[in-house]
Amino acid sequence: MVDLHFLANPARFRRFSQRVLPSLGFATALMLAVGFYMAFFVAPADYQQGDTVRIMFLHVPAAWLSMAGYALLAGLGASLLVWRHPLAALMARAAAPVGASFAAVCLLTGSLWGRPMWGTYWVWDARLTSMLLLFFLYLGHIALSRAYDSPERGDRASAILALVGVINLPIIKFSVDWWNTLHQPASITRLDAPAIHNSILVPLLWMAVSLLMLFVLLVLLRTETEIDRRRLENAEAAA
Amino acid sequence: MNGFTTLLMRDLRLVLRRPGDVGVVLAFFVVATVLFPLGIGPETNVLARIAAGVLWCAALFAALLSLDRLFAADYEDGTLDLLLLAPWPLELAALAKCAAHWIVTGLPLSLLAPVLGIAFGLDGPSPLALGVTLLVGTPTLSLIGGLAAALTLGARKSGALLALLALPLCVPTLIFGAGAIEALAAGEGIVTHVAILAALALVALATTPWAIAAALRQAGE
Amino acid sequence: MVPPLLEVTGLACRRGGRLVFDRVSFGLGAGELLALTGRNGSGKTSLLRALAGLTPPEAGTVSWRGVDVAKDPETWRGRLAWLGHLEGLKGDLTVIENLLIAERLRGGEAGDRLDGALLAFDLNALAAREVRTLSAGQRRRTALARIALSQAPLWLLDEPLNALDAPAQAAFRTALQSHLAAGGLAIAATHAELGVEGRSLELGPTLSSTSPPPGGEEG
Hints:
The structure holds three protein chains of three kinds.
Chain A lengths: L7 H35 L13 H28 L2 H33 L7 H20 L5 H33 L14 H41 L1
Chain B lengths: L2 H15 L1 H22 L3 H24 L4 H6 L1 H6 L5 H30 L6 H26 L6 H28 L5 H30 L1
Chain C lengths: L5 E10 L2 E11 L4 E5 L6 H9 L6 E6 L2 E2 L4 H6 L1 E4 L11 H11 L7 H8 L15 H14 L4 E5 L7 H16 L3 E5 L9 E4 L17
């Protein structure tokens, strides 16, 4: 006999998300359209980097969001381990690939930026290297959460991993920075948010907010899928 | 004798019953490092420059290779249940298992690495310094690897997954371990590096036993 | 009316979204045996694991002398002797080493009791053999000797008679009877008749207890 009590929270979530999703989707599309317009046509080209600087409007928010995404995973992990919140596990499952994708976008745009600026697609820049390691942490989380026959075990194992990962992330960042200063000549142009001027700052923040909305939208959509999937699996297990 | 020492001695005794298992890990370490001169060429100045990095990476892989069975053996024969049901903290049991792992892998690797370092053309105080950094750094690898082993207990394809989980977390130790020898070559001391390695080991010591215990508990459910 | 030593109320356990058992209640007093029966998959093992605290229950409490055991799990674990369907023995260690180490991990020291446990399960001839060289029945006997050695007040046994021949079954009965006679408690999941006087609790898929639920008044 399947007791659906544990889905009470997810069911409430679903009612909430179904009310919110359509308008959120519309707003996100609008925000992104305006954001891209500003990034491509309104913001000035950099005197040094030229139009290449426009990659920053995607690259920098992607970096922020992938880091925030890992913090979200850790928060969801704590919520699962401490309060055994069933929705947290499903949302972590939904959020991890989204965060990994944002990290991948960050890496990809970074290497596209690097081609004209550094003359090569990859340089062991401290930020890029840290982001690569964050991407690996995401991959580990995703792989671990799907490595068990019983999905609950995957949920809890990856929750523990996310908590340990979030403690280690600053340490990794610090060591990579240290390593980078030892091995890199300082003269190189750093892949970095360029000198902040309002004509750049406004589109950058606008894109950050739009991409945050996209992040939330994707996580909510994927959480719905995860709820359905878990419900099906449980029904199969009970049959 | 309390639970911690009992468990530590038990694991060491189990290793003594099958010394070949440790031998294989050490042999892997030697063979893996010897491949580099064969692949890169025997120029001593090139080899000496990459020696610390190669030996540190090989030590990391060797340690991970042997971690697969750390908790799996106990999980399969039911002794893990006895640890879960022992009337003392599971965190101590996790620590005892990692300590036993370090004694049979991290310690011999640290002793072996200076010899290989000489073969790579390290000279002066460098081989000794390499041994010291490994001695201080490998406990972290045993602890982080132990966590990865506990997390992947009973998972499909646990060996490769274990490496995927543990390697990014081991990066700081690798950076400061290998970096120490480079600092030495640049005429700086290794004290800062060793101090940071020790700090990393302390952070691992303070956090991983709890995480391992939590992972083992959920594996026992 | 004295409450029973061990009291289980409204215990429920969930695995993979499915309730394995629900509203299990019983009391057990000193010297009492409870046999858990039921078909495969009816939750006997899950109930034993929940009682031991290996699996957090979905609902319900287990209390010992009126105190919820979840409040002090370490002390509770010290009161248990556990035999799962895995023996919990190291194949590369001898019978004696396994028994001594298991007892030390429980925080005890076997001392003189070791000889008695070996004798009770006819293990003297095997004492110095490595466990991996033993037959399934001989391993089971070693595991039972570990339980008998433990002096724990509550034995939790999962299919203790598995793989045992007639003399070994008799040895187990004797050990169990003397444990009960000394005021110990035992809960055993079993398919076969244990052959020792005790109560039984049948776990079923729907858990409509056909037998009246054993209540606290019997303790």
